[in-house]
Amino acid sequence: MLILCSIYLVTSLASKAQTQKHGITQANELVNLTEFFVNHIQPDLKSASVNEFPVLKADGIKYIMIFRNQVSKEQLLVSIPLLINHLQAESIVVHTYAAHALERLFTMRGTNNTTLITAAEMVPFVEVLLTNLFKALTLPGSSENEYIMKAIMRSFSLLQESIIPYIPSVITQLTQKLLAVSKNPSKPHFNHYMFESICLSIRITCKANPDAVGSFEEALFMVFTEILQNDVQEFIPYVFQVMSLLLEMHKNEIPSSYMALFPHLLQPVLWERTGNIPPLVRLLQAYLERGANTIASAAADKIPGLLGVFQKLIASKANDHQGFYLLNSIIEHMPPESVDQYRKQIFILLFQRLQNSKTTKFIKSFLVFINLYCIKYGALALQEIFDSIQPKMFGMVLEKIIIPEIQKVSGQVEKKICAVGITKILTECPPMMDTEYTKLWTPLLQALIGLFELPEDDTIPDEEHFIDIEDTPGYQTAFSQLAFAGKKEHDPVGQMVNNPRIHLAQSLHKLSTACPGRVPSMLSTSLNAEALQYLQGYLQAASVTLL
Q1: Total domain count for the chain?
Q2: Which of 493, 504, 512, 539 could form a disulfide with 519 if both were Cys (CB 3.0 to 4.6 A apart)?
Q3: Domain that holds residue 296
């Protein structure tokens, strides 16, 4: 009882500032926290039995957790095997505290923002740590203990390749746990950390051995199939994210097991749940990136279904950006001949939405799309498809949308796509030099230089601040992004263009070589002085001149 009072007194007197994330951030200098830790906390945690005096042990572990920033790293390293040992305690409070304390220690930051405790320092404890964490999930009352599962996730993240020898056992236990909790999902945090742990297992193993992806599919697909067949709504968005991660690990064609599932992903019922939309779009993008040719040859009859999904998403103010993600992947990856017959209808749908319900978000996505289309099919093809819908529409789009709105585009990759697309319109579209569209050439160049040099226009019209939330009748499972299933940002322009400014200068040089005198003449009469100065800088950096 005396030691409990001492812990309480020290904790109260020493604490000057505290946060939930970092524990005590400011301590009373008159209290020697390390001495108290060594003389009173450690001896209790080192006792032979983890089950005796559970209240005392829980308070001792809580002391480590609270004062982790005040105790030296050496003392924390001494504490780690003690905490691992207490994962075996029968008391739910003690083993939960032990798991939470380990998870907090593993997130502490040292110099250079790296973890304070390194994977190398944990190597001697890897096996017993993983064994005790998974055993703790079998203790009464802790079968779905979120603190233990979070500690498992954090351990994987810290240990990285050190866990690879244990992955066969670990993934079996995670799969069994997934199957068990899928019968009646009731602990959202536990479930989230469980899927994060599965993603970490996949990432770490496949980074060292890409061929291991097949063994994960073998282990997980049976459970995933059961979840999808039983319509476990809470888990379906997670399953799609893990499947995307697995599919993206493949370097060659899509395996037949994925192609068998493809038609089912286009079923309208799946797209009615808002929580399914982001992971489903990501999964379809993975299909397109890895197997566009397979889809074009073996599942061409499903392309209308794919475009049907795009049409549904584009009609929604909440999900139109997801529709553009899908459309951009179709344009980028599908063989041109497989979508030829649908291209005009795609643009008609987009123009209908522009006319009926224009928003800033839609405009930004539309600008990226048309410039990606221009990069993929050519500036002349873009002009021709616009003018086939309505005469002189290409000029209207340039004048009313691209020139005044391009400054609103945000994101480094998105700006690069727009810069390369506009450069193509300026330098690879003959009608821009010889028709009524010529008057738009200099304003378009001015807008492009503005995209390079001016701050982003992030203004939003007042009426868009109050866009109504769309009707979603009944309960809707929310989408929770898995951090460790994250997708790398993709640059469709890639190495084709490293520096868009240099690319513009080189393209203008090439145009001026084909039309001597025209380009300098248009620049000198219409481009403002500041923009002209920037352009001279690009030409100088590219070591080219205009003829």
Answers
A1: 2
A2: 512
A3: 274-351
In a domain, 9, yes or no: yes
Answer yes or no: is 30 within a domain: yes
Predicted TM-score (pTM) of the model is 0.89
Which distant-in-sequence residues (6+ apart) come within 8 Å of 227 by Cβ?
182, 235, 236, 239
C-beta separation of 322 from 240 below 8 A: no
547 residues of the chain, pLDDT tens digit each: 445 444 544 554 444 444 555 554 544 454 556 676 767 678 778 887 889 888 888 888 888 888 888 888 999 999 999 999 999 999 999 999 999 999 999 999 987 889 999 999 999 999 999 999 999 999 999 999 999 999 999 999 999 999 999 999 999 999 999 999 999 999 999 999 999 999 999 999 999 999 999 999 999 999 999 999 999 999 999 999 999 999 999 987 889 999 999 999 999 999 999 999 999 999 999 999 999 999 999 888 999 999 999 999 999 999 999 999 999 999 999 999 999 999 999 999 999 999 999 999 999 999 999 999 999 999 999 999 999 999 999 999 999 999 999 999 999 999 999 999 999 999 999 999 988 999 999 999 999 999 999 998 888 776 665 444 444 444 445 678 999 998 888 899 988 899 999 999 999 999 999 989 899 988 888 889 999 999 999 999 999 999 8
Domain boundary among 351, 370, 399: 351
- Last residue of one domain, picked from the residues 321, 351, 381: 351
In a domain, 65, yes or no: yes
Q: What is the chain's length?
A: 547
Give 208-215 contacts, CB < 8 A, sequence gap 24+.
208/161, 208/164, 210/249, 210/251, 213/246, 213/249, 213/250, 215/168
